[in-house]
Amino acid sequence: MGRLKLASFILQPCMGLFLQGAVxxxxxxxxxxxxxxxxxxxxxxxxxxxxxxxxxxxxxxxxCINMTTWIYCHxxxxxxxxxxxxxxxxVSNRNRAGLHRWxxxxxxxxxxxxxxxxxxxxxxxxxxxxSFAMYCAMGVYKLYFFWTTISFSNEIKxxxxxxxxxxxxxxxxxxxxxxxxxxxxxxxxxxxxTTFEIPLSQLLLDTVRPLGSGQFGVxxxxxxxxxxxxxxxxxxxxxxxxxPTADVVCLKSxxxxxQILNCIGNHxxxxxxxxxxxxxxxxxxxxxxxxxxxxxxxxxxLEDHRSxxxxxxxxNLDREYISREDEPINFRDLVRWAKExxxxxxxxxxNHVIHGDLAARNVLLTFSRTAKVADFGLSKQLYRYATxxxxxxxxxxxxxxxxxxxxxxxxxxxxxxxxxxxxxxxEYFSLGATPYPGLSxxxxxxxxxxxxxxxxxxxxxxxNEIYQELCKCWAVDPTARxxxxxxxxxxxxxxxxxxxxxxxxxxxxxxSFQVQPSLSYVAVGDLNYI
Length: 530
Prior knowledge:
alpha+beta; Phosphorylase Kinase, domain 1; Transferase(Phosphotransferase), domain 1; 3 domains; three-stranded antiparallel beta sheet; 11 strands; about 50% helix; Kinase-like_dom_sf; tyrosine-protein kinase; transmembrane receptor protein tyrosine kinase activity
């Protein structure tokens, strides 16, 4: 059995490795081969044409066949050049459907050429000159060409749209992280602390019901077994990893998040690092272990309680996060979450980290309903990748939460995080509504943000004072936006101000409250998906 597998491996084109590059190289060779064949055949065009005309004098049918096949054989070379350019584009995009169509059409044209070649060989005795040898060589080459292309199509079927050769971090990437604490040129920090390393054998993953999943990553609930002298303690944790077919840029984003969590330490309002399994990271097996926030994201928590307030049963037996219907949301909760979110963002900003993807879905709640910021540290590189990875008819990146300068020129700063914070708190006070309902992403939308003509309306449960503070977060001039220290102080003052009757605020129940459908997209690198 082992010899059979080895034989099948060796017999594959390029031994089954780097097939994308091999097919692209063959496409380039195809252009060169056909140009050469066209050039070599030019001196013979006149003699061949005269020879075909002689046949017309005594056999008109044979003349028509010879002329048709002769024209097609030479025309096929020009067609092959155009098809080679098309193949290069299809293979670069790893478009399996397009590759199938290309194979069917190209194989059909080739079979027609083969029939013409055989006909010319029989009728015109091409075997007596150099052309016969050239066309035989071309036939063998074409068979190898199609074989390699079909093998590449099968490789896409096995591995998806990601080149297997690009799914592994290089030695240089790993050395940068584990020895210098650097994942890319944009951020450098402390080297990875080996004290965070946890053997995978100490994790009991619940893979049946993931906490969240997306196109590139998945989050599992797990039990961490911690040996304590002669006994074993346990802790419920959340474990992040990437799916096997994800591009290496997604794996790097998870490594980057591990790097940042490793560098900045613990804080009460961020989801803290518990440990990591990095022993097989080069084989794409990286597990980042963080605190488990029992109530899930603020977005989902608000949606669940909003449904309950509207008289709809919200408890879901399949849901891995807990719903606490015994503690309905009130105005004070929303203010406190706004303050705690600002507190967490102030901490990561002081550590020179830009969040880049702040939204209510990326702020989690502990069982005691403490807000913790999660999924930070996504780099500009990831958003550029996300923009170009999407098809033109799909929604690009989380545009509803992003500042105009991020959408305009991918400029991410603490000031752009301040903008996203304003949108996130807007979600809090609208009980999880979608920002900019009814609008779609376009250049006019970006221009409207840039000129100040487009801004979210006042959320239903925010006071005028709170809405005015949120509007400051959406200032056109990034430097005019409030710092997280000021935002934290603002909401802390509301909590402490006895003149605001937050203690007697009724529970938030509004049967007439309507919410726009949630935005459906997956952002590259967002591994929480909750």
